[in-house]
């Protein structure tokens, strides 16, 4: 367990996963084991969304890849590469076409192994600042590699009256989000939103194109920055939502800013 501290802020990270963000003794992160979701955060890469209806195949310029829902990155282990009192950097590396065991098999999937036809390196950097927690994702791969990226943090919510505020005074309630079901609740062209609890927090992003919201309970809410909303296309057309690596690594940022 890695612990970061700055003034009244404490962050705890378990094998790359954000499991605590505490400010003035207030916990903002959904706790593993509580109702709603088995995790506290994860990443969706190199695809977002389900693939079962496409026989778990995703088209790329190098041929079909076998991917389960939200990609294979979550099946890889993070390595800690740098750590200080306020900063921690974790990294995952993948070699093209390496078979990765699918943890969803056999209970939730019919494919036992996943693979992607490109090498990549994926870094996740946590940094505490005076205004909050900054999380930076850096993707290094060969030029032209297609990908989608989504960040999937889960926040504690107090009850069914919790809301997410965004845009020009637009709001979505927990009940609205629950009603959207498994396809999540998209916030089109939105890169900043506020979770309105008694203890409120703002999520701001750079590089991501929009957000989607998901929960099945009143006491947890996922506010997910994404590069593409996958339910806009059929599962066998997910390639239409790809971004592509340029000459330099791709970088995306998320800022969690508690509101006093």
Automatic annotation (TrEMBL):
Pfam families: Aldose_epim. One of its GO terms (biological process) is carbohydrate metabolic process. Its cofactor is Ca(2+). InterPro entries: Aldose_1/G6P_1-epimerase, Gal_mutarotase_sf_dom, GH-type_carb-bd. The keyword Calcium applies. Keywords: Calcium. GO terms for molecular function: carbohydrate binding; isomerase activity. SUPFAM superfamilies: Galactose mutarotase-like. Monomer. This is Aldose 1-epimerase.
């Amino acid at each position: 367990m890695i612990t970061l501290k700055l003034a009244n802020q404490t962050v705890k990270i378990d094998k790359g996963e954000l499991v605590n963000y505490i400010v003035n003794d207030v916990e903002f992160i959904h706790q593993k084991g509580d109702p709603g979701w088995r995790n506290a955060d994860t990443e969706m890469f190199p695809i977002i969304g389900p693939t079962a209806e496409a026989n778990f195949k995703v088209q790329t310029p190098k041929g079909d890849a076998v991917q389960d829902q939200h990609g294979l990155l979550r099946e890889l282990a993070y390595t800690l590469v740098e750590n200080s009192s306020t900063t921690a950097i974790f990294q995952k590396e993948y070699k093209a076409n390496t078979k990765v065991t699918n943890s969803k098999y056999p209970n939730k999937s019919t494919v036992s192994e996943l693979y992607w036809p490109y090498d990549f390196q994926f870094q996740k950097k946590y940094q505490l600042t005076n205004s909050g927690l900054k999380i930076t994702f850096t993707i290094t791969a060969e030029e032209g590699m297609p990908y989608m990226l989504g960040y999937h943090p889960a926040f504690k919510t107090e009850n069914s009256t919790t809301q997410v505020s965004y845009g020009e005074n637009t709001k979505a309630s927990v009940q609205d989000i629950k009603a959207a079901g498994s396809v999540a609740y998209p916030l089109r062209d939105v890169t900043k939103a506020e979770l309105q609890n008694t203890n409120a927090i703002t999520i701001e992003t750079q590089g991501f194109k929009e957000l989607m919201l998901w929960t099945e309970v009143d006491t947890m809410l996922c506010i997910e920055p994404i590069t593409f909303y996958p339910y806009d296309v059929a599962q066998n057309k997910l390639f239409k939502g790809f971004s592509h690596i340029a000459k330099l690594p791709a970088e995306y940022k998320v800022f969690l800013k508690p509101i006093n």
